[in-house]
Amino acid sequence: xxNKVRGILIGRMQPLHKGHIQVIKKILDEVDEIVIGIGSxxxxxxxxNPFTAGxxxxxxxxxLVEENIDPSRYYIIPMxxxxxxxxxxxxxxxxxxxxxxxxxxxxxxxQLFEEEGYEVKNPPLFDRVNLSGSEVRxxxxxNENWQELVADSTIGVMEEIRGVERLKNLSVKEISDL
Length: 178
Ligand code: NAD
Fold this sequence. Notes:
The chain is of the alpha/beta class.
């Protein structure tokens, strides 16, 4: 194995937005390679988790191409949730390229990796009021400008998978389930 310093960032990316892209670039300033974990990979077609792991992989891949980031510097790995928080960090270790630094702003993620002995860093948040997956989904449902929050390539993926239509259908369905 080589001596590359690798960091990992795990996010649901529902959908990928400009905050994720900025934090990925920031991490790449600090490490040789980044492992980008697509969290809750098993979930899709829900209001909070509308997109499949595969669709999210395409969003990340195309956005990083758009940013001209060298593809040899990242790995994009779908990560399913498991029911056991206490062994989740070990599970992530098992399923990913070796990494030594964990980047996360999520308190549970930070705690689980710290307890496992990893170095954990809290990356800066960029415009968290607007740059969040829930804000992108809210704007889509309210016919507001969600496009400004995501990469141009993500707008293209959303058209390809008819993402806006899917989210709106899910909102009708989940309200009717109440
Ligand atoms: P997320 O997409 O909300 O955020 C991921 C990361 O992106 C954040 O930690 C933050 O560092 C960065 N980020 C987000 N918005 C940003 C912004 N505006 N500016 C800069 N950086 C920004 O994802 P999340 O909810 O933290 O993902 C954690 C994943 O880990 C989930 O899928 C969760 O289910 C999974 N998990 C699973 C288990 C288990 O299976 N037992 C346990 C813990 C966590």
